[in-house]
Amino acid sequence: MSKVLVEKAQRVAVVTINAPEKRNTMTDEVMIEALLQAFHEVEADPGISAMILTGAGTAFSAGGDVKAMANRTGMFAGAPLDIAEGYRTGVQRIPKALYGLDIPTIAAVNGPAIGAGCDLAFMCDMRIASTTAQFGEVFVNLGIIPGDAGSWFLPRRIGYQLAAEMTFTGRIVGAEEALAKGLVLKVVPPEKLMAEAKALAAVIASKPPRAVRQAKRLLRAGEAMDLANFLEIAAANQALAHTTADHLEAVKAFVEKRKPEFKGR
User: Fold this and answer.
1) Which are the contacts of 80, defined by CB distance < 8 A and separation ≥ 6?
2) CB-based contacts of 250: which residues, under 8 Å, 6+ apart?
3) CATH number for the domain harbouring residue 55
4) Is the CB of residue 4 less than 8 Å from the CB of residue 15?
5) In terms of domains, do 36 and 100 share one?
6) Distance between CA atoms of 105 and 235, rounded to whole angstroms?
7) Sign of the C-alpha dihedral, residues 15, 21, 23, 24?
8) Model confidence at 1: pLDDT above 80
9) What are the DSSP calls for 136-168, one per residue?
10) Partners of 186 in the beta sheet?
């Protein structure tokens, strides 16, 4: 069976990490390549406007393979320079690919998201959680640090103070606390999780596709740029948006008091 499943319907792609027997760990070479291929396939498809990422079985992702760490195999093998290179050419390719997607991403967190699995959820733009979801930045419990960019994503997603508390204590955050502290948008029963995620994705997919991708690029740019340079980028993108057929259709539909029909042009 494929390590990663991709389903597409109504401009939404659902990417499922499919290794439930290993609680969807994501540090072996086959899984990494499968995830990268799935992200590339979704990004390259102009018929997709939003992506949902979830896990098969009862876990979202248990992150790194602790048995492989103990046995010093795979990306955890060799001298320090070998391990560093294993991270660079292995799991660190995932945040680059996922963050680089121009379409909005939604993590449907169906169960524990632990270690690199926790970071994976926060690499997505939005998170909807099942009542069984758990979030744990647990690297310190194993005497290591987040080697997959968790320390970059968490402060940007949930604020420095909470990111620091989760990182330094390695404690598990349950679904209700995650909702109360803004880690997730919504918490729903397990049987309603995918319906909620697909409903949110459907709203996004109903918008002009090119405008949605431009909007995400601007959000990413805003994380790294000062205001003056950002405004220049925003002006250039806005000028392009004003010339699209979808913008003209949206304005015309607004004036005519009807539902617009977007074509992605």
Assistant:
1) none
2) 208, 260, 262
3) 3.90.226.10
4) yes
5) yes
6) 25
7) negative
8) no
9) E--GGGGT---TTSHHHHHHHHH-HHHHHHHHH
10) 128
**H or E element: which one contains 187?**
strand 186-188
Query: What is the domain range of residue 63?
Result: 4-205
- 227 domain-assigned: yes
Return the sign of the alpha-carbon dihedral for residues 192, 194, 195, 199.
Answer: positive
Domain boundary among 168, 185, 205: 205
Structural tokens at position 70:
């103990």
d(CA 252, CA 265): 15
pLDDT value of residue 263: 85
CATH number at 239 reads: 1.10.12
User: Residues 213, 201: one domain?
Assistant: no
Residues 127/70, Cβ–Cβ less than 8 Å = no
Domain membership of residue 265 (yes or no) is: no
Q: Is residue 262 part of a domain?
A: no
Taking the model in full, what pTM does it have? 0.94
201 and 233 belong to one structural domain? no
Q: Answer yes or no: do 99 and 228 share one domain.
A: no
Give tens-digit pLDDT for 228-256.
998 998 999 889 889 999 998 898 888 98
Report if residue 261 sits inside a domain: no
Query: How many separate domains does the chain show?
Result: 2
Residue matched to tokens 């390590």: 3
Sign (positive/negative) of CA torsion 48, 49, 55, 58?
Answer: negative
Exposure of 220 by Cβ count < 10 A (0-12 exposed, 13-18 middle, 19+ buried)?
A: middle
Rounded CA separation 249/260 (Å): 6
Question: What's the confidence (pLDDT) of residue 70?
Answer: 92
